[in-house]
Amino acid sequence: MESPTDSSPIRPRDRVVRRLAALGIPMEYLEKRYEGIIDFVNGNGLLLPEIVSSLLPTDEDVAESIQDASLRSKKWMCLSMKNQFRESMVWLQWLMFQGEPTNTLKNLEDSSVEQRGVCGAVWGSNDIAYRCRTCEHDPTCAICVPCFQNGNHKDHDYTIIYTGGGCCDCGDATAWKQEGFCTKHIGSEQIRPLDDNLANSVGPVLDALFICWKNKLFAAECIFQENMRATDCGAEQRKAANELTYVVVEMLIEFCKCSDSLLSFIARRVISLDGLLDILVRAERFFSDGVVKKLHELLLKLLAEPIFKNEFSKAFLGYYPTVIHEAIKEGSDSIFNKKYPLISTFSVQIFTVPTLTPRLVKEMNLLDMLLKCLENIFLSCAREDGRLLAAKWGSLYDTTNRVIEDIRVVMSHDVVSRYAIHEQKDFLRAWLKLLTFVQGMNPIKRETGLHIEEENEAMHLLFVLSHSIANIHSLLVDGAFSVASNEGASCLPYAYKQDVDDGDSIRHAKVGRLSQESSVCSVTGRSVSKATEIGSDSIYHSIPSTVIWLIQECLRALETWLEVDGGTPAALQSLSSPNSSGISDSNFLSIKKTLYNIKKGKYFGKLTGSSENHSSQCSSPVYSGNRASDEMEIAKNIGYDSTSSSAEIDPVACDYMGLDVSMETDNGIGVVTLRVLSLSEWPDIIYDVSSQEISVHVPLYRLFSLLLQKALRMSYGESIMPNITNACLASSLSAHVDFFCHILKGCNPLGFSASVMEHPLRIRVFCAQVIAGMWRKNGDAALVSCEWYRSVRWTEQGLELDLFLMQCCAALAPPDLYVKRIVERFGLLNYISLTLERSNEYEPVLVQEMLTLIMQILLERRFCGRNTADSLKRELIYKLAIGDATHSQLVKSLPRELSKSDQLQEILDRVAVYSNPSGFNQGMYSLRWAYWKELDLYHPRWNSRDLQVAEERYLRFCGVSAMTTQLPKWTKIYPPLEGVARIATCRETLKIIRAVLFYSVFTDKFTESRAPDGILMTALHLLSLALDIYLQQNGSGGVEHHIGDSNSMLDFASEAITESLNYTAGNQSLLSLLVALMRMHRQDNENNYMESSKSSFSPLIESLLKKFAEVDSQCMTKLQQLAPEVVSHLSKSTSNTERRTSGSASDSEMRKAKARERQAAILAKMKAEQSKFLSSISSTADDSKSEAEVSDSDLEHEAEGALQQSCSLCHDPTSKDPVSFLILLQVSD
Predict the structure, then answer these.
(1) Where is the composition biased (Polar residues) (predicted)?
(2) Which of 456, 519, 457 is nearest to 486 (CA)?
(3) What CA–CA distance (Å, rounded) separates 615 from 1210?
(4) How many Cα atoms are found within 13 Å in the side-chain-facing hemisphere of 332?
(5) Would the CA dihedral through 914, 916, 919, 922 be positive or negative?
(6) Does 3.40.50.10380 match the CATH number of domain 866-965?
(7) Residue 985, SS3?
(8) Residue 1091 confidence (pLDDT)
(9) What whole-number distance in Å separates Cα of residue 570 and Cα of residue 560?
(10) Which pairing describes strands 158-164 and 125-132: parallel, antiparallel, or unpaired?
(11) Between 3.40.50.2300, 3.40.50.720, 2.10.110.30, 1.10.10.10, what CATH number should domain 118-190 receive?
(12) 1124-1136 pLDDT tens trace
């Protein structure tokens, strides 16, 4: 052998021979090179590990290469080292395949041309791939271009995408449907095992190589952890491990490309060596980027083997928190995205597998690990008050987004969501705890001084975070409402019965959904014959116990939040002070002890108390704050009996005062002990949106709103309510009333509604102020928050849920206090003072937004009255009213739930006309003329620009103004929310309407009016809606007690104004203001010789006045004095339409008596005429028969007549006062 010289370095092959000679292998074998080493190993198999180790370069060889690099270049050193390791791989391959490796690999490749299982082609950044929604199992799946071209995707819904990494899913049955496989991939289940002879020769060599590889990796990791990179020894070892890993991975990738059988064999050998897979997962921490990229490519290919994927996922979960910790420690996403790319590359490969993820959740506590990582991120970015600091958190956005997205993907599996809800309640508590970091995050405060120049770049990222959290909430709620038939049984019974010891036994058998009939199904499938059984118990039992528990946990979290929130603690302290509370602390504790062991049968049942003092304090609490003016009505609506004797304890009243009455129940759900939400008085919460901090991020409220929405729909949705017949409606009314009391155990309607409505209301006020221009000096911060909140993408998860929560509060709260709170938050208490001077420049916009909000609270039915078809129709009309649209534009504009409806195309064809594409013009849908009449002017997603466009198009298509013709109507609403109607007819709302009318009448043309035309029109709409509610509730006498006494509205209409005495207008009332306004606009129209479409108020006002006259005699009398021309046609006829029950009793009786007299006269006349007609028929029949026949015939006809003559309405033959007769005529022979 030649000795090395400086001019001619030793060749890699010679270095290998030298190391083998040093091991003691005879030269006769070494002279034969590759064949010789094969012969030696076959005769000395026990020396194989030492031989494999000698084939690899030693540390001295690496040191020589580094020394040579000092004289040449670093690039030359890397190339030299790679050549040495590649030469070693050649020798190893000869040993593996017992001959020429190229020929063996070629034979394997040829034999598996038609038997490839999974494609596994690895993508880089911005590579082209195909996504087929018809074939994919989840949205993260895609296939490469060749697989798409070789497959059959005719008539499929597919798109071309640019990848950000990952691998082709063709052949993977857990990601792609089998019918979508291309012709070259048959699935991993069809992979044949490696030939035994080949396995016996390859296996031992691979094992020996992997042992050496693992030792090198551990040494490199130790050097990295001990920071020994500066030392020569440490540098040599790390470079050796780096280069060895590169060439080993390079060789294994080539093997995997040749044969799936060899791929599966390699994957199993990797996991058989203890510790190797774990160190490979961690290798990105101490290897160069090129090596890491190559290693990840190999791991992606090996995932095609199910056994490897299972073991890799365990190592992956063990490494996951380490990466998150490093990112938090660094305080930047750069380390997560660039230095540690394994998490972002492989999480989607692991967590989307339906057969694997449930196993990880149960066996590896996957959800707990993810929540812990998210908690650590939030803790590192939290302010002193526990809320996220946006500026600091923005640097960890990608890290946070990765963790939250992984939680969403894991929870998207139906089995996992059920398991988490029903068996992992600690997970839910931990999640609610995490929401407190996001609740109220990034608060902003209005600037009144200098304009803010610095902008928060992370502000839009907070909305993306809230959007991701909302997606998880949807999965949580769906899981809570999907109840297994056997409560307490594991929701993952079959996902964990597979034995991983036998590799061949695990192939990707899909986890099916639970097929057992749940209690939800039994409710929704209830037959009509059982409708009469629907009562409080059946409605309550339709809601799963887990949902009730989750609602209680939300209430507990909200309670904690409210106790520290601005404005609420002060109100709580004032209401719970010794001078204002009816219950002392000692009595409070004694009542809790008395009721501790009591179990309730029904929630509203009476319980006998053991102490007279306790019961009296429970059933008759002392109020000292702002008490509800209609307290008895609220008590009636919530099931509280104010007449209960002192010897009884009302558990409802006790629960309202924070007593845990049902700490132990049959289903394990106890009433949450609350303080703020159980206040028995309306708290005076002091808060000003324009001067205090405000945040639009309230995920706790939205989760709670989503739960209430689903519970309400489950109990009263379209699949339930049609089964409730008129016969059982009355018996179920109490269940409707008690719905909220059953769901909101431990809450008082006063404390609950006042507290829960607060934050959604603040956000609406904030948006109104931004629109009005009050937050200009805050730069883009306020504007961006408002635009995101009102955007189409956010509305479904934010604004609409907030609005629904306000509707729930409106149904429970005293209406006057509720509306007054709205006026307070908008800062418009001065508006109803009837002072003509405008308070500030922002007032008109604020008044308009406030009236619009009240209208939306009254009219919105998306979650509480509309079925899917109606909601789809409304959304399509809303979109098409703005302009014609393509099919894709319409689908994107729909809420996510509606966009997936099977009825979409049917309803779209019904409401729109399609124009075929021509030239460069796309096919467009246009709204049909008939459906313009169904345009909803108070849709929650309207903005001023789109609404103006819709109004102009309405005028162009229909020829009239939408505002004057599309009057709002009270529509069907779920029974528990019928109390919302009281908002329209309460005095505070009528005061607002009267103030608008007053300003419209008495403001001269040279002064800026406090009630422009837009405000006036909305106020008239609100008044029209109030009248419609009054007419409907008096026309159906079964629901009046839900809505309340709205006769006060008619009294208020004639009530004189006292606030305007300082003006020369004289005593005015709501009716007189309407009359004056009608005449003003009528005069203006006559002066202008034509009526403007935007100011045609007089016909609308006249129709309102006629409604007042029709429904009430006092209003009729008043209007006969004020505007006789309006009611002249009504006064001449009998007032048959007067419906006011509290009017004059004598007038009512007199009208009824006259009506009965007229009816009796008509009936008598009809009876006489019909009797005469019957007599004539009988005489005609007698003349044509013989005397004997006539006798028999008379008897027969008399019998028939007695049976056949009956009233045509009631069909009662014995009726004494029939309206008309049914007579059977028979033709004679």
Answers:
(1) 1130-1147
(2) 519
(3) 53
(4) 5
(5) positive
(6) no
(7) helix
(8) 44
(9) 15
(10) antiparallel
(11) 2.10.110.30
(12) 888 776 655 544 4
What distances in angstroms separate CA 491 from CA 109, 515, 710, one per listed residue? 44, 12, 21
Which pLDDT tens digit goes with each residue over 350-385?
998 888 999 999 999 999 999 999 999 999 998 888
Residues 900, 905: Cα–Cα separation, whole Å: 11
Residue 95: CB partners within 8 Å, gap ≥ 6? 37, 38, 41, 48, 51, 52, 201, 205
> Alpha helices, DSSP H only, in 1094-1144?
1097-1111, 1113-1122, 1124-1132
Q: How far apart are CA 890 and CA 877, in angstroms?
A: 10
Instruction: Match 């290798």 to its residue by tokens.
Output: 283
Q: With the C-alpha atoms ordered 288, 289, 290, 293, is the resulting torsion angle positive or negative?
A: positive
For residue 393, the one-letter residue type is W
129 membership: H or E segment, kind and range: strand 125-132
Whether the CB-CB separation of 156 and 135 falls below 8 Å is answered with: yes
pLDDT tier at 890, thresholds 50, 70, 90: very high
DSSP string, 955-983: HHHHSS-HHHH---------GGGGGGGHH
CB distance 358 to 495 below 8 Å: yes
Number of helices (H), then strands (E), in the chain: 58, 6
Counted residue by residue, the chain has a size of 1229
**pLDDT tens-digit profile of 717-745?**
776 655 444 444 444 444 455 788 888 88
Strand partners, 921: 918
What is the average per-residue pLDDT within 926-954?
91
CB of 990 closer than 8 Å to CB of 996: no
The proportion of the chain whose per-residue pLDDT surpasses 90, expressed as a percent, equals: 31
Which residue, among 795, 790, 798, has the nearest Cα to 771 in the 3D structure? 790
Extract the tokens encoding 424: 């992992």
Of 1037, 532, 538, nearest to 739 (Cα)? 538
Q: Reply yes or no on whether the pLDDT at 443 is more than 50.
A: yes
- Contacts of range 726-734, beta carbons closer than 8 Å, 24 or more positions apart: 727/531, 727/532, 728/531, 728/532, 728/533, 728/534, 729/1038, 730/1038, 731/532, 731/534, 731/535, 732/534, 732/535, 732/536, 732/539, 732/975, 733/975, 733/1038, 733/1039, 733/1042, 734/535, 734/536, 734/639
Report the Cα 798 to chain-centroid distance in Å: 9
Read off the pLDDT of residues 136-162 as tens digits, 9 standing for 90 and up. 887 888 889 988 888 888 888 888 888
DSSP 577-640: STTT-SS-HHHHHHHHHHHTT---SSTT--EE-S-HHHHHHHHSPPP-SB--TTHHHHHHHHT-
Amino acid at 1154: K
Distance, in Å, from the CA atom of 788 to the CA atom of 795, rounded to the nearest integer, reads 8
Domain extents for the chain?
Answer: 7-108+196-243+260-268, 118-190, 866-965, 985-1034+1044-1083+1097-1128
The residue behind tokens 């948006």 is 767
Of the candidates 114, 96, 118, the one whose C-alpha atom is nearest the C-alpha of residue 105 is: 96
Question: 1173: which 2 tokens?
Answer: 């007609």
* Residue appearing with tokens 């809303």: 878
Instruction: Tell me which H or E stretch contains 222.
Output: helix 196-225
- Work out the average pLDDT over 202-227: 89
| Alpha-carbon gap, residue 650 to 666, rounded angstroms | 20
